[in-house]
Design brief:
38% of the residues lie in helices and 14% in strands. It is of the alpha/beta class. The chain folds into two domains: 246 residues, Type I PLP-dependent aspartate aminotransferase-like (Major domain) (Aspartate Aminotransferase, domain 2, 3-Layer(aba) Sandwich), CATH 3.40.640; 133 residues, Aspartate Aminotransferase, domain 1 (Alpha-Beta Complex), CATH 3.90.1150. The strands form two sheets. It has a seven-stranded mixed β-sheet, with helices on both faces. Strands 8-9-12-11-10 form a five-stranded mixed β-sheet. Helix 5 links the parallel strand 2 and strand 3. Helix 3 runs parallel beside helix 10. The chain binds pyridoxal-5'-phosphate. The site of pyridoxal-5'-phosphate (PLP) has 13 residues, from helix 4.
Length: 401
């Protein structure tokens, strides 16, 4: 009989657990311990490379979550980190040395841009930023010492979509490791490993956790790369706390249900905003008019729960609008069950120079919404009432998407 392949919804709920084990607790135990006792020196030596040695190296609660994530991403292995930023920094430090070079997309999460452009040069690693969807620029920027091609799709907060097959092919041709921040997509909407991407990174703080109650980072990918990153994680000391890993595991069980609902809600919100006279532009991958909509629909199962739009007005109007919302909470994160609103130039991209932000397409009028699992008609009613604070204006030029 042909072996049945489980769907992501099932992997999310049952992944990581050894289902053949009977009479155990249904909920994974929290190994809330920093260290593990052994009976003798022989056992001590045997325990060292395992998840029963010392929690900075690994922990059984983490192992269950890491296995569940690897299954969801269709990757060989996965690792947890204390934050999304530590997942990026540890991975990059593990795979580069002084004299190496990295090519990174221009419009990515501001914290990653800051690490690439302000920190890596201090350690002798050079970074070239390229236009996100100009693949010729990606190829041209590659040098003999280029080690990593860093990607993000969809991008934060501009929601551009990267052609994963194309970039994977360019990187393979030059023997470069591809690392993608797939936080916005989640493995429910896109599994970059299927397109040939080597390492998939997430801020697990967002959709994986899903309840705005933990900080976490994730990297999944090829076993040999994960082993190298694991050794660096141990040295840099940025593993997760076991209790937070258990919360993460609980979040993963409802990941698929939440993301399906957020996909539906966000598309409805994007369609509402697109038709509003006080909106200049809307960015959402599955929205008609998005420049990479066809690509998004080919490589993603849903457009995700995040969208951004520009108000027809000033930066001041955008701020007043965000403050006037009631159901969308003013807070700088995304991916949780509650809808959130933020102004990228004040939060996620505040550390980026205004001229660089302009090149990324992040304007003062831009508002980023993280659409939660509430009733979508209530969310739209909240947006509608908040537009009252934005003054009527004649649109400047054509509507951009
Ligand atoms: C796309 C993306 N990547 C990475 C990060 C960093 O993750 P963390 O806040 O968990 O360190 C964020 C945070 O907002 C993000 O939005």
């Amino acid at each position: 009989m042909k072996k049945h392949k489980r769907h992501p919804e099932t992997e999310a709920v049952r992944g990581g657990m050894d289902l053949s084990k009977k009479n155990g607790p249904l909920s994974t135990p929290i190994y809330q311990t920093s260290t593990f006792e052994v009976t003798d020196m022989e056992e001590q030596v045997r325990a060292t490379p395992t998840d029963h040695f010392y929690t900075r190296y690994g922990n059984p609660t983490h192992t269950v979550a890491e296995n569940a994530i690897a299954e969801l991403e269709g990757a060989e292995a996965a690792l947890l980190f204390a934050s999304g930023m530590s997942a990026i920094t540890t991975t990059v430090l593990a795979l580069t040395k002084a004299g190496d070079h990295i090519v990174a997309q221009r419009d990515i999460y501001g914290g990653a841009t800051k690490f690439f452009t302000q920190w890596l040069p201090k350690f002798g690693v050079e970074v070239t930023l390229v236009d996100t969807t100009d693949y010729q620029q990606h190829a041209k920027a590659i040098r003999p010492n280029t080690k990593i091609l860093h990607l993000e799709s969809p991008t934060n907060p501009t929601l551009r979509v990267v052609d994963l097959k194309k970039v994977a092919a360019v990187a393979k041709q030059h023997g470069i490791t591809t690392l993608i921040d797939s936080t916005f997509a989640t493995p429910i909407n896109c599994r970059p490993a299927e397109f040939g991407i080597d390492l998939v990174m997430h801020s697990g703080t967002k959709y994986f956790g899903g309840h705005a109650d933990l900080i976490c980072g994730i990297v999944a990918g090829r076993r040999d790369l994960i082993d190298t990153i694991h050794a660096t994680r141990t040295t840099l000391g940025c593993n997760m706390d076991p209790h937070a890993a258990w919360l993460l595991l609980r979040g993963i069980k409802t990941l698929a249900v939440r993301v399906h609902r957020q996909n539906d809600n966000a598309l409805r919100v994007a369609q509402f905003l697109k038709g509003h006279p006080k909106v200049r532009s809307v960015s959402y991958p599955f929205l008609e008019g998005h420049p990479q909509r066809a690509l998004a629909m080919e490589q993603m199962r849903g457009g995700g729960g995040v969208l951004s739009f520009e108000v027809e007005g000033t930066g001041e109007d955008a701020c007043r609008f965000a403050e006037a919302l009631n159901l969308f909470t003013l807070a700088p994160s995304l991916g949780g069950v509650e809808s959130l609103v933020t102004i990228p130039v004040i939060t996620s991209h505040s550390m980026i120079r205004p001229d660089e932000r302009e090149k990324m397409g992040v304007t003062e009028q831009m508002i980023r919404l993280s659409v939660g699992v509430e009733n979508v008609d209530d969310l739209i009613a909240d947006l509608e009432q908040a537009f009252a604070v934005v003054k009527e204006r004649q649109p400047v030029g054509a509507v951009r998407f």
